[in-house]
Amino acid sequence: MAREHIILECTEARKEGKSPSRYMSTKNKKLHPGRIEKKKYNSSLRRHTLHREKK
Asked: For the chain, how many structural domains are there in total?
């Protein structure tokens, strides 16, 4: 199967001492072999932040 479930975690929240927000998503391993980065909403920081794939 080419699709994989991944977890996206906020990169800016830990720098500010708050709990990071996490999102579940899927990706196609054949088209995107590296880690994915997306801008998502972080409710503890109340703004959109960069979320990276967590392994």
From this structure: 1
CA distances from 11 to 3, 30, 39, 48, 52 (A): 24, 25, 10, 11, 7
Dist CA 29 CA 8 (whole Å)? 15
Residue 18: give the domain boundaries.
3-54
The pTM (predicted TM-score) of the whole model is 0.87
Within 1-55, where are the H helices? none
Q: pLDDT per residue over 5-51, tens digit each?
A: 999 999 999 899 999 999 999 999 999 999 999 999 999 999 999 99
